[in-house]
Design brief:
Elements: E1 4-9, H1 13-24, E2 29-35, H2 38-48, E3 52-56, H3 64-74, E4 79-84, H4 89-98, E5 102-105, H5 110-121, H6 129-153, H7 158-167, H8 173-180, H9 184-198, H10 203-212
Parallel strand pairs: 1-2, 1-3, 3-4, 4-5
């Protein structure tokens, strides 16, 4: 069976070198590269095409989240396991959205890292136990927000949503009309309907509600 080809992207040279030396001792893993920043991680991923990348979040020149996003967009066959420090919850969630599959704390033991790499190669996600409850709580929160959004905007027609998206950017009715190929009178009617349905007093309040709920022009 061929070895799992691993790249390490970590700006801490001591951790990078130590982790690299430890992984080289594993009979199932093959270390193909170690890099100190996200920019190099992206470049070498295209050349070496490792199976799994152990990716730090905080790195110079290009952080691990953006590096993960770029790699996964162009090379979806490469799996990324994020190395994070305790307390980086929001960054971990950003990494999830960027396409990372595993999430480990930097003080994880070698066996835990090894299992995460093997699981990632098989397309299975691994999450450091200490992060599980936090990630579940965040996803529950996002689910609740999504439910409230659906309820809040359920009464709006598709055209009203389009108007609201542009209204939220600060556009005046005349510009919205030009953008959507509508008459200014029609836009004004839509705006009035939006205010009534969202139970707000003016377009500024409507824009704030839209922004708070992530409604924005594509």
């Amino acid at each position: 069976m061929s070895k799992i080809r691993v790249m390490i992207a970590e700006d801490d040279s001591l951790l990078r070198n130590t982790l690299g030396e430890l992984l080289q001792l594993d009979s199932e893993l093959a270390l193909v590269s170690t890099v100190p920043n996200g920019e190099q991680a992206v470049a070498e991923a295209h050349i070496l095409k490792p199976d799994v990348i152990l990716m730090d979040i905080e790195m110079p020149r290009l952080n691990g989240i953006e590096a993960t996003r770029r790699i996964r967009e162009k090379l979806p066959e490469i799996q990324v396991v994020i190395l994070t420090k305790y307390g980086d919850d929001e960054k971990v969630f950003a990494a999830i959205k960027a396409g990372a599959l595993g999430y480990l704390l930097k003080d994880a033991g070698l066996e835990e890292i090894r299992r995460a790499v093997i699981a990632a190669k098989a397309g299975e996600g691994v999450l450091s136990p200490i992060l599980v409850s936090k990630v579940l709580s965040e996803f529950n929160r996002l689910t609740q927000v999504a439910t409230r959004n659906r309820e809040l905007f359920a009464e709006l027609s598709r055209r009203e949503v389009e108007v609201l998206e542009l209204l939220a950017t600060g556009m005046k009715n005349s510009l919205i009309a030009d953008k959507l190929c509508l008459s200014e009178k029609t836009v004004k009617t839509h705006v009035g309907s939006i205010l009534r349905k969202l139970h707000v007093n003016d377009r500024t309040e409507a824009a704030l509600v839209a922004q708070e709920h992530g409604i924005r022009a594509q």
